[in-house]
Amino acid sequence: MRASLIQIAVDEGESVNSRRSRVSSLVREVAASERPDLVVLPELWTTGAFAYESFASEAEPLEGPTYEVMAKAASDAGAWLHAGSIPEQDAAGDLYNTSLVFSPEGELAASYRKIHRFGFDKGEAVLMGAGTELTTVRLPSTTLGLATCYDLRFPELFRGLVDAGAEMFVVPAGWPARRREHWTLFARARAVEDQVFVLACGTGGTHAGVPQAGHSIVVDPWGEVLAEAGDGEEVLTVELDPAKVAATREQFPALKDRLLGMDTPRR
Q: Do residues 143 and 165 make contact, with C-beta atoms less than 8 angstroms apart?
């Protein structure tokens, strides 16, 4: 399996419409040159993850402008596309940080509303509602578990995804530069403790005055870093062997020894 992570550098002088057009073109270009099975974009790349004042004005319905552009890009690319996340506004007017995943035919395969919102009683934490459902997506060769940015700090979410069959976590993010070491630490920790691949796609540039960490990263089930970006706009393309998940779990069967959190503890 071949995956390409597109680390978008958000330029605050670039309009949302212009960025949609540019990023959809990037998806097509990467698909043509890298031939990936899966393309991944970052969190809230249309607005910037810290551009709180833009969330309401740039919010869109699930099947809004970004949906339409990304569905077409996935179809043109002939690849699975995790289109990052958007500020979604539902019919009641409530906002959510919602990820979209499209099939190679351009059909919506899944959407995921971010469960853990960042901000400590301000920003995203008060402007957006919390998702309530764990979400997985079945690809021909593996099962993706979906999470977003701040979710990385909550390992119980990822154990739930493993229990739902996930073998690869896809984590779009808008992680700040001042906590970059946490970003790489958590990505590796989630890979090791759950014996999965982790594809964590961040942003470059600056969001509302907050420098972004970049450093998108791909980690294998042993915790080995297969690829890591710098802090600007960049594409990471990595060859992945989904069979390595089962091999790792067989070689070091730690998940079988779980007791806490299981419905029926083993004796």
A: yes
The CATH code of the domain that includes 204 is 3.60.110.10
Domain span at 191:
2-256
Q: Is 133 a catalytic residue?
A: no
Q: Which of 58, 88, 114, 124 is catalytic?
A: 114
Residue 256 designated active-site: no
pLDDT at position 262 is 59
The pLDDT tens digits for 189-216 are 999 999 999 999 999 999 999 999 999 9
Total structural domains in the chain? 1
**Within a domain: 263:** no
Q: How confident is the model at residue 261 (pLDDT cuts 50, 70, 90)?
A: confident
201 carries an active-site annotation: no
The reply to whether the predicted model has a pTM over 0.85 is yes
